[in-house]
């Protein structure tokens, strides 16, 4: 037994010497846990999957994600724009734009709650104070825009809303500290000027300007310019989902509008009118809200994946298609001015896509084209002499 103890002690001493030699040459790796302020850094990007209407977009590559989002935005928002103009064509409905927004926000809240129950992660990640600001901006954007249709015709409203690209870029500079290149600025100018030119013909045929409507759509434009940047910053900062953003922003906005209509005594006349025309009001409003909800889900996915500027560029291009459908369904006159302005909008879209892929798309310079043409001429003359 004494020999065993001696052997164990010698083995332990040898192991201790070996461990000492091992630890002396061991390399240590320090792991530091970031503080709460560091984890909330705006430079941290989202790592969660981007799910839109039950479809996980993170499984696809960037071009496929862009194609799916753009297709969803165009398909649902074209129907949305048609139904919006159709609802306000109902005789006597124009004074009730805020009530339509209330019904729309109510449907959005229900749709968002249903979608949130279908996903696994039901946590609210974005703070309530941020949602109160986003809800206020959402109410300003959609409520003022819907109400302005009671004072302006549809093309006049689109003229103002087409100028949203430039305020979004300004908001991106001041809110998120972004810097845009010449291609982004040129894209915003081309699309804004092209869409304004696109709608000038219709506005001159049936001008229906009203100072109240101009003020309303201008305020909606300012809110719309800010909300995209605020949503992008909140979703990247707190890693929030699209369903969460829709549910809380529109449910809080519903409370805002309900309180405002109750205080201004505008709720009772609207309910009385809509009860007399339930199909043209609540029926259309349901389809209007459903297509708008699907559309906003794809817009939020665009904002989260590609940023606010590209999302607004896509939605601005969608407005051009909305105007084309408006001409088809409401028999507006056609001139070549629409063709040239449409080409200007296409140029703006190309410039925006080019600015996002400058490293992949290399346009030839004028000097390069001239040098290439000179070399081709020399080759032709050499072949002719031979």
TrEMBL record:
GO terms for cellular component: endoplasmic reticulum membrane; Golgi membrane. InterPro entries: SCL35B1-4/HUT1. It is a multi-pass membrane protein. The keyword Metal-binding does not apply. It is found in: Membrane. This is Adenosine 3'-phospho 5'-phosphosulfate transporter 2. Keywords: Membrane, Transmembrane, Transmembrane helix, Transport. Belongs to the nucleotide-sugar transporter family. SLC35B subfamily. Pfam families: UAA. It comes from Herpetotheres cachinnans (Laughing falcon). One of its GO terms (molecular function) is 3'-phosphoadenosine 5'-phosphosulfate transmembrane transporter activity. The chain crosses the membrane at residues 66-84, 96-119, 131-152, 158-175, 182-200, 206-227, 247-270, 282-302, 309-331, 337-354.
């Amino acid at each position: 037994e004494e020999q065993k103890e001696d052997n164990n002690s010698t083995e332990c001493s040898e192991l201790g010497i070996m461990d000492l030699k091992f630890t002396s040459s061991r390399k240590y790796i320090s792991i530091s846990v970031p503080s709460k302020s560091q984890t909330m850094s705006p430079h941290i990007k989202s790592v969660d999957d981007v799910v839109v209407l039950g479809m996980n977009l993170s499984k696809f590559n960037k071009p496929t994600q862009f194609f799916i989002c753009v297709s969803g935005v165009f398909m649902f928002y074209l129907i949305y724009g048609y139904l919006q103009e159709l609802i306000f064509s109902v005789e006597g409905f124009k004074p009730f734009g805020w009530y339509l927004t209330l019904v729309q926000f109510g449907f959005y809240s229900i749709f968002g709650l249903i979608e949130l129950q279908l996903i696994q992660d039901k946590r609210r990640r974005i703070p309530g104070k941020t949602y109160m600001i986003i809800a206020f901006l959402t109410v300003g954007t959609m409520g003022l825009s819907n109400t302005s249709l009671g004072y302006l015709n549809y093309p006049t409203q689109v003229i103002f809303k087409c100028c949203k690209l430039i305020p979004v870029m300004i908001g991106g500079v001041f809110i998120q500290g972004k810097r845009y290149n010449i291609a982004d600025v040129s894209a915003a100018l081309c699309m804004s000027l092209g869409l304004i030119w696109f709608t000038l013909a219709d506005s001159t045929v049936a001008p229906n300007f009203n100072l109240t409507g101009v003020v309303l759509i201008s305020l909606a434009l300012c809110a719309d310019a800010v909300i995209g940047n605020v949503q992008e910053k909140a979703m990247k900062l707190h890693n929030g989902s699209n369903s969460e953003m829709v549910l809380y922003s529109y449910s809080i906005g519903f409370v805002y509008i309900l309180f405002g209509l109750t205080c201004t005594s505008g709720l009772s006349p609207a309910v009385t009118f809509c009860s007399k025309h339930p199909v043209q009001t609540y029926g259309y409003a349901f389809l209007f809200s459903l297509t708008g909800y699907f559309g906003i889900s794809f817009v939020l996915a665009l904002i989260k994946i590609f940023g606010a500027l590209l999302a607004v560029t896509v939605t601005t291009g969608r407005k051009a298609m909305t105007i084309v459908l408006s001409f088809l369904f409401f028999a507006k006159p056609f001139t070549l001015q629409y063709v040239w302005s449409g080409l200007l909008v296409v140029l703006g879209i190309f410039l925006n896509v080019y600015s996002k892929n400058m490293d992949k798309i290399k346009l030839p310079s004028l000097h390069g084209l001239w040098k290439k043409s000179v070399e081709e001429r020399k080759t032709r003359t050499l072949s002719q002499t031979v």
